[in-house]
Structure formats: structure tokens, C-alpha cells
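Batch manifest, entry 17 of 40.
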Amino acid sequence: MTQPPVNPAVAASLNLRGAVDLSALKNTRPAPAATAAGNGADGAGGQSYSVDVTEANFQDLVQLSAQVPVVVSLGAAWSAQSANVLAVLESLVAGYAGRLLLGRVDAEVSPQIAQAFGATAVPTIVALVKGQPVPLFEGELPHDQIERYLSELVKVAAANGVDGALGANRDGADAAEPEPLPPLHQAAFDAIEAGDLAAAEAAYTKALAEMPTDGDAKIGLAQVHLMQRTAVLNTEQADVLRRRAADAPEDLEAQLAVADLDVTGGHIEDAFARIVGFIKNNFGAERESARVRLLELFDVVGVSDPRVAAARQALARALF
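Output type: C-alpha cells
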């Protein structure tokens, strides 16, 4: 199967340097790296790709996250939800056959790790990519939603140069090579990996010109546009935009900018509600501009996402 475009809602998390303070764990005693996969659900060839994590071996996972994405499951022994989510994660990670590593953390046994990630509830699922934290989700989710999170994580990690595999699974008989992307899609993907969003935009635009029904190119272009709009904003500018949007609900530019920030930060419902609210209370050209942007963000999040379905209904009510 071809590799779809990267979801910037997850990609943006890779830029949150300092959002989680891992410094308190830097001086803990590392365990041998060879023990980093040895007591979880088995993957291809009986090899395990999950490990119990404590402060003692946490730095091993941080280092391994430069090779493969590391999913960290913060749970508790008394929590049935933690056990349920962990079982799903172990099964799904095993299916990636070394392209993901799962770290199991008992938040009560290793509270320092939970505090470092800012976890306030269990289960909390985060990831590490190149040593940087990527928040995923809290609580218990259906199997298919967890599967989508892991799929997006793998794509985002690959876009940031983390696409290795633990063990020799990629060259093994059971490792099926993915079908190559169409040339323009591959060019866009390579451009995103290189940080050249203008080149990625040009590649997806050309792909759509050649085939207007190319759904993946449409989604990729929407995602690149979101990356372009948010990449230039620092924390101070984002705070100014949020204050401006709060003070001037009729300011379309501010409302759309904050909706972009909410999507990249994972606050999907807030972003959709903000734009739907603007559409409900405004008319004319600005209303249409808001509607077009909302449809583009639907593409970014994914048309099969239940939050998109709910927002479509809210949009219909606002329009009619």
C-alpha cells in the first residue's frame, strides 16, 4: 500500500521542544540496551518489541527513539482501562515488526517518568521521536482509533528521518516492501522531510493538475498549507493571536489562525467549533472563506474521523 501524507496535527508535536521536561531523568542509571525488547507481545519471528520501563532504563528508550518511534504507555496496575489499552498497543506494535517499540510504565512505580510527561491521568499514551515527546491520547479508545494514532506516528517519524527497524525484520522473508509512491507524491514527501514546504506544495499542486481526482494529493496539499501557516508562528505570536481572537470574535483572520493552532495542537473539536461558530454568526464573503477553510481542515484531520462527521452536522445546522 502507498504511504499517505503526513498529518500535521501530529507533526507539529515534534516541534514542541521543552514542552516536556525530561531533564530530571538524564542522570538516571541506564540499563543495557540489549534489554530494551524482551518481555512483551511477540512480533515476527517471536521477537518482542515491548519493554517494562523505569527511571533506570528510560534513557535507553530516548536513545532508541532516534532509530524507531517509541510509544510510552503510562498506566497503573489497578486501572482496567490501562490494561485494556496496553493489550491493544502490544498487539498493534507487534504487527509493526520492529518499526515501533512499546515502553510500559507503571506510573505509581515510576512517578518521575509520569511527572516528566505531565501525565495527570492513566492511561496516558505518549511517544518519543528523536528524544522529543509526541502526545498521543489519554483514556481508553477503540482499537481502530489507536491503530490510526500509531499509523500517523510512523508516518510523521519517517518524515523526520526516523524510519529504522529493530532487528532484521525489514530484510526478512515476512517483511513486505510497501508499494512506491507516485513520483510527485514521493517528491512531496521528500520535500517535507527536508523541510522544503514550498517544494512539497508545488509537487502536490502539480499532481492535482494532472489528476484532479487524486484524493491523496488533495489531502497532502491541505496538510502542507496548514504546516506553512503555522510554521512561522512562535509561542509569543500564537499567544497574541489567541488574545486577538478572544477579543474580536468577528475577526476572521484571527479565528482561522487560532483554529490552525488548535488542529496542530490536537484540539480538533475546539478548532472546528470555532470556525462553525464564526459561520453561524457571519455572512457574505467571510462566511464562505471560513467554510472553505473548515472543509480543508476536514481533509487534514481525515474525513473518516468521527470529529469530522460531528462537525459536518454542526456546519449544516449553521448554514441552514
